[in-house]
Structure to design on (280 residues):
């Protein structure tokens, strides 16, 4: 199955002034792309110009065997409030079937795609009110109907999502983008974004009568049921705070790339941010 990595640099550059990818995330991205190619199909990169130039300068564009395309997000989308909007704009241009995964997410084993329903996600999320508030929380400009949505369905974690239904993919992305465009400018950098990206997916599926499956705990969907996923989201801050943990993680990633993908190892040896991990 075709897969997609997405990088919209603008939310990052507004906070940090210059764009860069940390060493541990870059290594995860490399393994994510290479392992998908080995086990599950082709993968391409959808990124804006700034991110594309970064990967090009590092010599890494060839890891995406499906090539790359430029990501353009509408100017009326607030990149601080809607920091994951790039995913929705990139997905809007794709055709199902397609898988999309965050660049810090690795699928280690082959997926039995013929067993999947219209949509599959890594797991569902509880509707904790401090993250997923009720309908009364959202103050939108006229033109978006919150009343037509089912507020009882669980939210989806979309770090890894497989869309097999074209109609659901188009309906979800158009609805999410429409929601963002009808949202007022606020300091909220969580609840509006996760509603658009994660909760609306379940709501859109319910309206279309489409089934969503959660991968977690369903080993029968894989050719090998052990250690199917790695998602470093919760470990990133720990690695920023702990040099030893960061060094160990990066060394293990580099070692795996060296053993399994020696041609790519030759590329990363020339990337300066990995100099500290060179063999003594």
């Amino acid at each position: 199955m075709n897969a997609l990595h997405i990088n919209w640099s603008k939310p990052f550059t507004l906070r940090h002034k210059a764009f860069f990818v940390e060493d541990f995330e870059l290594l995860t991205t490399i393994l994510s792309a290479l392992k998908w190619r080995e086990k599950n199909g082709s993968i391409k990169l959808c990124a804006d110009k700034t991110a594309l130039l970064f990967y090009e300068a590092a010599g890494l564009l060839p890891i995406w065997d499906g090539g790359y395309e430029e990501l353009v997000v509408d100017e009326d989308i607030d990149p601080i409030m809607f920091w994951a909007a790039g995913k929705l704009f990139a997905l809007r241009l794709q055709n199902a079937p397609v898988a999309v995964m965050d660049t810090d997410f690795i699928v280690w084993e082959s997926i039995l795609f013929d067993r999947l329903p219209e949509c599959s996600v890594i797991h569902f999320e509880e509707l904790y009110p401090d993250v997923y508030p009720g309908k009364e929380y959202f103050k939108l400009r006229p033109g978006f109907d919150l009343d037509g949505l089912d507020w009882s369905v669980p939210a989806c974690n979309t770090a890894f999502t497989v869309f097999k239904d074209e109609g659901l993919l188009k309906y979800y992305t158009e609805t999410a983008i429409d929601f963002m465009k009808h949202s007022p400018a606020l300091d909220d950098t969580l609840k509006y974004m996760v509603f658009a990206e994660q909760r609306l997916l379940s709501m859109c599926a319910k309206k279309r009568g489409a089934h969503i499956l959660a991968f977690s705990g369903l080993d029968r969907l894989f050719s090998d049921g052990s250690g199917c996923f790695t998602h470093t989201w919760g470990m990133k801050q720990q690695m920023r705070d702990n040099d030893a943990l960061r060094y160990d993680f990066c060394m293990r990633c580099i070692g795996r790339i060296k053993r399994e993908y020696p041609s790519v190892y030759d590329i990363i040896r020339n990337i300066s941010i990995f100099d500290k991990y060179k063999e003594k």
